[in-house]
Amino acid sequence: MKVLRIVRGIWLTACIGALIVAQLAFTGTPTSEVAGNLTFFLLVLCLPSSVVAYPCMFAVADLFAVRGVYPFNSRIALTAVWVCYFLFGALQWYIVPAVIGRLRSRPRFTPGVRL
Q: How many CB atoms sit inside 10 A of residue 39's CB?
């Protein structure tokens, strides 16, 4: 489906663009809004899978926070937040449609009919 490919391309471009903009706008100060803006943008962009990615993002952020590293003061932690949303979004836009397509294309077994 051509429309699905176009939407996937737009989604992928928007996700990568969001990461690039976040990295360019990164200041490393506690008052920086970059991490929050990136999270909100990806939350909307990756719906409905972002509902699952949101709590996972907090789990990943906690792993960094134990070491004193936060998305507002570390580019790596900021990228880890992005990766959480990106993985669930990619699952939603690429993996699930591929699995559904394979299941639909398999021949169905009908009792009493010989092939």
A: 22
